Amino acid sequence: MQLESPKVTVPKSAEYLFNALTDVKNFEKLMPENIAKFEVTDENTFLFGLSGMPEIKLRLKEQTPHSYIKLGAASDKVPFTLIAHLEGTGEASSTVQLQFEGEFNAMMAMMVKGPITKFLETLSSNMGKL
């Protein structure tokens, strides 16, 4: 299953956003209001839980300066990745698009598509808070 957020324009440089997003503690600022738990477990890993959902642990997996950041599930139980595509559009402006890739059976995919889509939209719309 592959989902994408809308592309959002953020009044920050791609370099600034890249540096902010590779510091995993900053993801707390992007989380939805119904966040029940957020914990940084090491410099590349964080754990979060939303009300009514299981906790998810994400780890920084790959990065290309100022353009690409890939986070992956720290557990193999539910393999998925969250990718941020950054593109500078000026000295103090850039666009961000988030992409979710996961391997789910058809039933699970139907159940999680809506909540994950909403989650991606929330993360991308909160980029200006960084």
UniProtKB/TrEMBL annotation:
InterPro entries in the record: START-like_dom_sf (IPR023393)
Highest taxon above the source species: Bacteria
Name this polypeptide is given: Carbon monoxide dehydrogenase subunit G
